[in-house]
Amino acid sequence: MAGGGPSLMDSLFQRSLDDLIKGLRLSSPDNKLNFISKSLDEIRREIKSTDPQTKSTALQKLTYLHSLHAVDMSFAAFHSVELSSSAIHSHKRVAFLSAALSFNPSTTDFILLLTHQLRKDLSSPNHHDVSLALSTISSICNPDLARDLTPELFTLLSSSKMFVRKKAIAAVLRVFEQYPDAVRVCFKRVVENLEGADMGVLSAVVGLFCELTVNEPRSYLPLAPEFYKILVDCRNNWVLIKVLKIFAKLAPLEPRLGKRVVEPICEHMGRTGAKSLAFECVRTIVTSLSEHESALKLAVEKMREFLLDDDPNLKYLGLQALAIVSEKHMWAVLENKELVVKALSDVDVNIKLEALRLVMSMVSEDNVMEICRILMSHALKSDPEFCNEILEFILLTCSRNVYEVIIDFDWYVSFLGEMARIPHCQKGREIEAQLVDIGMRVKDARLELVHVARDLVIDPALLGNLYIHGVLAAAAWVSGEYVELSRNPFELMEALLQPRTSLLPPSVRAVYIQSAFKVLTFCIYSYLGLNGDVASEPVSDTELDNDNVVITHKQTPSTSSSKHNLTQESIMSLLNLIETNLGPLAGSDEVEVQERASNVLGLIKLMKPRIIGGLNQSEEDKIKEELKASETIKLIYDAFSEELAPVSLNSQERVPIPDGLVLKENLNELEAICGDFKLPLSTSFSLVKTRMLEKDATSISECQSKEESEPSNESTSLLSEHRKRHGLYYLPSESKESVSNDYPPAHDPKDKAIDEAEDLVKLTEQSLVFKKKSNPLKPRPVVLRLDDGEKSNFVSKKLEVKEDLISGAVQEVLLGTEASTSSSISKLSKKSSKGVPELKDNTGNNDLSEVSLAGSGRKKHNKERKHKSSGKEKEEHNNKDKQKSDRRHSKHKSRQRADSALAAQSQVIPDFLL
Amino acid sequence: MGIRFVLMVNKQGQTRLAQYYEYLNLEERRALEGEIVRKCLARNEHQCSFVEHRNYKVVYRRYASLFFLVGVDNEENELAILEFIHLLVETMDRHFGNVCELDIMFHLEKAHFMLEEMVMNGCIVETSKSSILSPIQLMEKAS
């Protein structure tokens, strides 16, 4: 028993699997790991036993622990292989099961050692051994195994035992995936099985094609007649569902095919009692046959049945099907809108989400307000998670294609404000972006925007809500940027400086202070009476104080009601307020906050003496001082009043490259010089930081700047390096793609909008829920759109040009794309039920071809030549096939068909096949 | 691949059977099982039997204390999978006679063999109960 080797004792007193399970059940949760590791020690010993029974039990136990208790069993891989050669079937099973459950096809090297055993078992007379081997192959097959076992599988594909044949078909799918060359060998036999009568075989082969068509359906078009026959004749729902899936893929490729299958599909839908089949029919029609109106109507009726059903499963699927159809046929959704809205309050969140998706797909400019109102009330009632889902959908839909559906921006802006106030709202980031975006894009919405922003900024309760700090930042920015539209800048200033702003993160606080700066500038500017040229109707303030010289308060054109008093006193108190609040912040350790606070304080320092005016000063000096102040403040004010506009993401591309600037040369040599000069990655902009760094790095940057100043060839790489570090400050150059992310354009905005609008008019007239609420009095304001970048810069989905080896091989087999080139080396098949009867020598499958081939090769060869010479004959064949297509069992005819398939290329095929 | 995995899990969230039709390593399996089971166990019987998780659609059904969960890809027919689960339960019922969690625990291998007969490579290949059971019965007779 040295070295823990297996002993007789181990074999005699080995714990069985049952013992292990019982032990596991009895052990307490704390003790379980202990128990498992103890058992594992036993197993490690037992598994080395020479007695197959002991080994098998050990492996059995290990497999159990592996599959249910996540115990690593890679150490036992060799033992699985060893045991698989046992003559006892039950041992073999244990071995193969452990292999199937634990081997990793791409990394377990021991799979190679199984090749021989698997081959032996595949040719075994015991069909249970064969079936076991097939199952194992289907789970652990790798390319080597697939290549080595293809000949055996080929034989089994026409096994007389249906039980075996069925499994061979299922296994061959895996082999095709791993080793596409196997298609050339086996495909024809697989296809032959389509005509078998055995349900198991049929089910397996249809399942196989169902999987194959998913990737590259076009290759399987020539088989449409076989599938059609199954669709019409078969009464097995499992098979029918798979066939329907195949047709869902094939029909879009060939309109004539759609016409043929739509009728039997509708028949199935009407006849069947099985919901699964009925649903599959619905899904097939809505995905692939939606242009067939009557069928679509039937499908929509069926969907309605599902939606009305009490079974939540059917409801869910009905909604999903409706979602598919909504892309092209909005009327189907509108017809069922009350059911959809009802589903919004379902107990199941999955159903609610589907309903939400559908509701949002109904949105148009006529009903957007109503829908948003309904959804808002749902959001308030819902749990936080779903509430945020709703908000996300609303935000996404309303901003789609540069706020396409929004006409009344005043409404939308206040709606955004409302959203931000929902207690569970976690969409602050998106609301923030939209508030700023609308501010820049929609001039007419700014007044309302400023009101909304004021309400947000002024509410001290909101400052404590972590999720809407972003919204507050946007609100603060809006109030500062458009302060001239504000009713009461003083109030705004108080709001921006309120004590609870200390709850804000530094980045937001910096925005607050910057806004305060703008508001202050505006106040002093108006105080000094410099905005006379802006205002259209200057209104003298009646409550003026006498000491001030030129105080006239002017209302900005659009500010409606209140006036603010601009007296020296009020300005002074404003300045004092700012000083008290921002004074401490000048020593803040947050650079952004500290710096901006210093800016404001600096401005106050500059202005204060001038506004107080030296009491002792003469009138002349006073005026002089004030003039100076005016100039300064005018400069600052002008700097701020320059309007910010959205910038096209592509705009940088349009900047012409100056002559003599070489951008494409490599700067790698600079690496050595400035390798140690690395700027820290800063996410926020601050002058202090860079200034400091500049100082630190002067010595290095001196030599660097020298190099830079000359248009040297290294500039590109430096530039890109810089860009990498400070991407933040660059406009994205690869913008074409990212644009569509920001504003996903609608599918086809124009045409559909009209259709939908008409539908919606009908809908809204009838419905109580979506009442029409159009504002003909209020035209849609101008929404600033950049002509290039944003406008449906829709990147059409890149067609995945996936090199599909399987379908390539299939096409070769079915259509004979290589017929002409390979005719000299090809041998021809005796019974070619479909497609090209060729198995090429050069693929190394000589032996296999001979299995299926026989003497008639010559004859066929000649035929092929004939076809090449005369196109008319080809057509004759086609016609013949058309007439007799219902009786295609006979070898003779199918051979004819194969011939014509060979000559006629893929476009002609569906014609004579159906 | 239609079916990606079949799981049987009890009410306490303990896995009783796990069959994957694509290779996942132990950590991935454990994570996946944990997440999915948590999701499904939290749902009640008035909710639908479909849960989307990562790139899977999980179709589940509860029988007494045992949950049957089948992960499929998006192409699969959900209702057919529900029927498949029922067929699986009926098959086991026929074999074990009023099947319960313990039967599956103590005869895990047989449960795997039944699944093996029904599903290969993620495709359902056999739906007749007697065909599914006949090899197993033969084996029992032999041993």
Automatic annotation (TrEMBL), chain A:
Pfam families tied to this protein: Adaptin_N
Composition bias type Basic and acidic residues, residue spans: 870-884
Basic residues bias spans: 857-869, 885-895
Residues annotated as signal peptide: none
Compartment(s): Endomembrane system; Golgi apparatus
A biological-process GO annotation: protein transport
One cellular-component annotation, GO: Golgi apparatus
Job description of the protein: Part of the AP-3 complex, an adaptor-related complex which seems to be clathrin-associated. The complex is associated with the Golgi region as well as more peripheral structures. It facilitates the budding of vesicles from the Golgi membrane and may be directly involved in trafficking to the vacuole. It also function in maintaining the identity of lytic vacuoles and in regulating the transition between storage and lytic vacuoles.
UniProt subunit comment: Adaptor protein complex 3 (AP-3) is a heterotetramer.
Family: Belongs to the adaptor complexes large subunit family.
Official protein name in the record: AP-3 complex subunit delta
Organism, scientific name: Penstemon smallii
Species lineage: Eukaryota, Viridiplantae, Streptophyta, Embryophyta, Tracheophyta
UniProtKB/TrEMBL annotation, chain B:
Domain AP complex mu/sigma subunit: from-to ranges: 3-142
CDD domains: AP4_sigma
Keywords: Membrane, Protein transport, Transport
GO cellular component labels: cytoplasm; endomembrane system
Species classification: Eukaryota, Viridiplantae, Streptophyta, Embryophyta, Tracheophyta
Protein name in UniProt: AP complex subunit sigma
Gene3D superfamilies reported in the protein's UniProt record: 3.30.450.60
BP GO terms, sorted: intracellular protein transport
Family assignment from sequence similarity: Belongs to the adaptor complexes small subunit family.
Major place of residence: membrane
Highest taxon above the source species: Eukaryota
InterPro entries: AP_complex_ssu (IPR016635), AP_mu_sigma_su (IPR022775), Longin-like_dom_sf (IPR011012)
Record's subcellular location: Endomembrane system
Pfam families: Clat_adaptor_s (PF01217)
